[in-house]
Amino acid sequence: MKYIEIDEELYSFIASKTERIGESASDILRRLLGLTVENIDQQSNVHISQPSLETKPLSNEEQNALFNKAKEAVEKLVSTKHIADVKEPQGNTAEQVAEVTSPAAGEETTKSNIVASSNDFATIVNEHLIAQQKGAVGRFMFLLQSLAQVAGDSFEQVLQVQGKGRLYFARSKQELLAASQSANPKQIEDTTYWVTTNNNTAKKRNILKEVLLQLGCDESVALSIVKHI
């Protein structure tokens, strides 16, 4: 007779099926399996069977074959991963778009360049409408309003145009008054920007010129525009 190891749960199950005192586990299992329980050889147990350890040893050829098979599987897995790593991504990812559209060294695109290449600054001059404005202040404000319409979001660069210790443009009236009580700030129509207007005509022309240059306007064009103030 041979012995096998069973877990605690299975042992409890077999024990629960006992029908008589002295009934062995073998008798219980044979009864449950529908096998006869008479004339069972009860010879001494010389060896405890452990089926999991009774596997026949592999020959050298079988071991080599098994090793080669495992090696091929590993090499195939590594090769597949390498191909996936170097394969060119499909579609337009954000990184690909950024890489394609990024300017080369020394060719950085600024807002002023965009404005200069996509708009004709000379179109802000409408002599008929300029003639209807009141004085230099009116013409100055009209040209700034027209320029804001041409520049769009890039018009925010007017905030970078400042004098020595002077603030010419701001987001609010209070900000200009805080810098100078005599600034006489006025809001540029159809925008959220304010400009100081207490400068003489020559200064107004110079301020507008600096704004045009900041937005990428050619200097000769800028000079032809500011003379309309």
Structural write-up:
- This protein has two domains: 8-53, no CATH class; 111-226, Replication modulator SeqA, C-terminal DNA-binding domain, CATH 1.20.1380.
- 48% of the residues lie in helices and 5% in strands.
- A hairpin with a 2-residue loop joins strand 1 and strand 2 (166-167).
- The longest helix has 27 residues, at 60-86.
- Strands 3-5-4 form a three-stranded antiparallel sheet, with helices on one face. A two-stranded antiparallel sheet has the order 1-2.
- Residues 48-55 and 92-114 have low confidence and may be disordered.
- With 229 residues, it is mainly alpha-helical.
Task: Provide key terms for this protein.
229 residues; mainly alpha; 2 domains; 3-stranded antiparallel sheet; 10 helices; rod-shaped
What is the CATH level 1 assignment of the largest domain? Mainly Alpha
Percent in strands: 5-15%
Low-confidence stretches: 48-55, 92-114
Distance between the termini: 118 Å
Structural class given helices, strands, pairing? Answer: mainly alpha
Helical residue percent? Answer: 40-55%
Q: Specify the CATH homologous superfamily of the largest domain.
A: Replication modulator SeqA, C-terminal DNA-binding domain
Number of helical elements? 10
The dominant shape is rod-shaped
How much is the average pLDDT?
77
DSSP strand tally: 5
**CATH fold name of the largest domain, please?**
Replication modulator SeqA, C-terminal DNA-binding domain
* Alpha carbon gyration radius: 46 Å
Biggest beta-sheet profile: 3 strands, antiparallel
Gross CATH architecture of the largest domain: Up-down Bundle
GO cellular component, one term: cytoplasm
Protein name: Negative modulator of initiation of replication
Family: Belongs to the SeqA family.
InterPro entries: Arc_rbn_hlx_hlx, Ribbon_hlx_hlx, SeqA, SeqA_DNA-bd_C, SeqA_DNA-bd_C_sf, SeqA_N
